[in-house]
Amino acid sequence: MSIEVTPAETRRERTLFMRLPDRLHAGDPLYVPPLRIERRAQLDNGRNPYFRHAEVALFLAWRDGRPVGRASAQIDHHTVERHGPIGHFGLLAAEDAEAVAALMGAVQDFLSMRGMLRVRGPFNLSINQEAGLLVEGRDTAPAMLTPHDLPHLGPTLEALGYGKVRDLLAYSAPVAEQPPRLAGRMAAGLHGRLQLRPFRLSRLTAEVARAIEVFNDAWQDNWGFVPLTQDEMRALADTLAPLLNERLTCMAELDGEPVGMIIALPDLNEAIRGLGGRLAPFGWVRLLWRLKVRGLKGARVPLMGVRRSLAGSPLGAVLPFAMVEAIRPHLHALGYRRVEMSWILEENQPMRRLAEAVGGTVSKRWRIYERVLP
Length: 374
Known about the structure:
alpha+beta; Aminopeptidase; 2 domains; two-stranded antiparallel ribbon
């Protein structure tokens, strides 16, 4: 049967859009349905501050009256200002190659009509949220806020003329009670003017603002980078608040000014596995029991950075190790056994060396694709 692609605009269509991956991944025991409350917030232009600087279109693919695929098209005006007329696609899930081709045709038409010259993705919805298509590491469960994609999507995109533009890596590292000797020696050389302290959760919004200030400075020269806005920072603080443990955070200050930060979070996917994305009627009880009573074994470091002014200096070389070692004993004491550091650009050799020095190995690879728009 031929494929029809339509915008997902009504409440019913958006619900179908949101839930479609759960059906397509039904045979995958490693897939973790995301919380529906979180997905609704992501697609709500009144709640997600990304929509304040971006145009977004959602598409559903239909075969014989049945939804068989979905995709989004985005124009992030902050990306266009920094990197030129590049549109994005994301939230891609489809039953087969025919559905992918039809969806990408709709995405390309949307972007071309608005003056974009290239299409890049997937981004769900931005590079600062979920990014990349999983091409290696499908044999392990996804950590929170990382994509877990159907295996045919990459080859299908390549057949449609999409090529790799970058790979993003995840490193999985064991949580050991004692730091590696190399990291210990490097951290021992820290300058006395430096203070390493946990985040002050009683002033979380201000602390996250300081962390994002460091993050935006640290990564602004990285490929594809788009800074987080103040509105996005506040939304991030609200999202992180229930998950943050001050012992799993570190703010580095030099003469009282923030120069580095790291945040580790419990891998929420461990806690929501088996809930089907729902927290009612008993999901909240099960979630809280898993988080607070049973405990989780995995954590993820989604945010880490050191100011560019320290690049190339002795302090800049040892500070990432010192921040990792500031939180590592607490991870161990809380029962965590492994931590995922993700994502890391494939060419980011300093971060890769850090991950490897603390015992990490590449566990997943996500790919960013791009093609010239016809």
